[in-house]
Amino acid sequence: MTQSANGVLIIDKPSGLTSHDVVHRVRRIVGQRSVGHLGTLDPMATGVLPIVLGNMTRLAQFYLKSEKSYEGVIRFGFATDTYDAEGQPAGEPRELACSLDQLREISASFIGVIEQMPPPFSAKKIQGVPAYKLARKKQDVALQAVQVEVKEFEISSLADSQAAFRTRVSSGTYVRSIAHDLGQLASCGAHLQSLRRTCVAEFTLEDAHTLEDVDQAVKSGELESILVHPRKLLPNMPAVAATDESLTRIRHGQAVNLPDFSRAREVKVFCGQRQLVAIATRVAGSLFHPKIVLA
């Protein structure tokens, strides 16, 4: 590519790659360094991984607390040290004695605002060191419980000690910990067998493309066709159109008057239908100051 791309690209992450691996591959495919992601996905997991390109990396601050949805399978009978299928068994196997209805009753206790202990094999830092690095060295991992919100958690089926589920959670929630803790309450241990992220903020699997799709789009000069339309970004934030004079001032970081009647604290500023120019913050009345400039 001769020109850097600016946009949001949704990748259907394959299992076995870290989120950073995906960023590295996208950098290589599109031929630019300015690439990031909006929310880590464990290597074992698949599904929605939003990638930001070029100036759109500045949007990351607006997605730090994004709600996420998942579907997957919890295997009962033994826990693992990583809380998922990639770890080592942490105890002798035990038979699941609960029925589907009993598991659903237990799972209801997770819904709402809860105190959750992150897995020892996680990116949570202890005195500046990621917990997983300490866990790999068999060192003590003294993590603190974190307040998270589980908005939905539904077990849809149970067969051969494996329960299919779907959940919707706040940012920072570890689905691995939900699986582990559910196994403790079921008195037999459990771990996350598989996980697929179906949604991050406004991005869903319907928006997602494989890395092979991206490679083909770049080779055929059609990358823009698979980028998320800028009008779909941050849907809860009003969009306003700016005049040529206002756009010049915005691009120089200067405050401008914008035609907005929503009374929202922040607005998306567009030039035409596709070019997202800035996110602006209301100063007073119709006067806005650009918080970030994107074009």
Description:
The relative contact order is 0.17. This protein has helices at 19-30, 100-107, 131-136, 175-185, 211-219, 244-251, and strands at 7-13, 35-37, 46-53, 68-76, 112-116, 125-126, 129-130, 146-159, 162-169, 190-200, 203-204, 239-241, 256-257, 266-271, 275-284, 287-293. It is α+β, with helices and mostly antiparallel strands and 295 residues long. It has 3 domains: 7-66 and 202-228, Pseudouridine synthase (2-Layer Sandwich), CATH 3.30.2350.10; 68-191, 2-Layer Sandwich (Pseudouridine synthase); 232-293, Archaeosine Trna-guanine Transglycosylase, Chain: A, domain 4. It has 6 helices and 16 strands.
Q: Which structural traits does this protein have?
A:
295 residues, alpha+beta, Pseudouridine synthase, five-stranded mixed beta sheet, 6 helices, 18% helix
Low-confidence stretches: none
Number of helices: 6
**What is the top-level CATH class of the largest domain?**
Alpha Beta
β content, as a range? 25-35%
Which structural class should the secondary elements be placed in?
Answer: alpha+beta
CATH topology call of the largest domain: Pseudouridine synthase
